[in-house]
Amino acid sequence: MALDKKFIDQFADVTSKAALASYKFVGKKDKIAADKAAVDSMRNELNQINIKGKIVIGEGELDEAPMLYIGEIVGTNNGPEIDIAVDPLEGTNFAANNLPGALSVMAVAEKNNLFNAPETYMEKISANVNEKGVIDLDFTIKKNIFNLSEFLNKKPENITACIMNRPRHKKIINELNKMGVNIKLISDGDVSGALLVTDDKYGVDIFLGTGGGPEGVLAAAALDTFNCNFQGRFLFVTDEDKIRAKKMGIKDLTKKYQLKEIIKGDTIFCATGITSSDLVSGIKIEKDEYISETLITHKSSGIKKIIKKFKIDRPKQYL
User: Fold this and answer.
1) Which end of the chain is more exposed for a tag (fewer CB within 10 A), N or C?
2) 3-state helix, strand, coil in the chain (%, to 5)
3) Separation CA 56–CA 89 (nearest Å)
């Protein structure tokens, strides 16, 4: 069963308004206030939509997050049952310091079709490749790059890999350098980094490395519509992580998840820019309106587009 297309605009409105709420705190050096504004706005907007929604990826668990916690029920309780993954403000430091790349993100799927990802690290790899055996988490970096080079008919030195600039990635970065691969380092922004493989205009051939598990699920929702490849493997380090994973129904703690095991059925994905990035432009002010830019995907209809000017009435607090 497909998600009704009427929800596309409604969910895009949710992320756009959350982005606008957070924008008030851009450059104010207060990431907690910026995040809270996005969370509060997103929760308020979701509760006005005719759905029986359940947050499966949110701001944390009930004792950690008063709003949009994992398991929270949202919507009017009239309408289809759907699972919702949210990251009201991805890139809190970007927003606080007025740096590029802050987003408001959400993905929705039919009930029980969206993986309930724990708050832990995940090994990830994504590329715009729809054939099996080209890229794989179990391959060496060298094999992944050589396979991708052959598939794309490019030399390794013409391949661009996107990876987060973290000490934990030093070994991977060194291997990429040895092969002459172009490297696009990002300081944060796990979701947008994975999505840069979706279109040639971004100039990224492969995304890899270790980042947040919930962000991996969010990215997978969009990558599915783009018919890209994605794999993820959770890293459970502490006993507490392992206990929580088992409570969430994860039996094999070392399992490598294919995209279709993370996202099933129809999905809608929305990512609105708060500050500008390669993916989407940030909030702009023109006269009495705020203008945002939102990447939207809807699998069943094949929609994958950027709404260039999603106009929102200017809130009273800005007048």
Assistant:
1) C
2) 35, 30, 40
3) 16
DSSP state of 279: S
pLDDT tens-digit readout, 20-62: 999 999 999 999 999 999 999 999 999 999 999 999 999 877 6
pLDDT for residue 312: 55
Residue 116 domain-assigned?
A: no
Domain boundary among 262, 281, 306: 262
Number of domains in the chain: 2
Cα–Cα dist 187/101, whole Å: 9
Determine the straight-line distance between the first and last CA of the chain, rounded to whole angstroms: 44
Q: Domain containing 55 — which CATH number?
A: 3.30.540.10
- Name 271's bridge partners: 105, 295
Please write the tens of the pLDDT for every residue from 242-259.
Answer: 888 888 888 899 999 999
Residue 209 β-bridge partners: 124
Return d(Cα 103, Cα 219) in angstroms, integer: 12
Packing angle between helix 170-178 and helix 141-152, nearest 10 degrees? 50
DSSP labels, 104-157: EEEEEEETT-B----SSEEEEEEES--STTSS-TTS-HHHHHHHHHHHHT--GG
pTM: 0.93
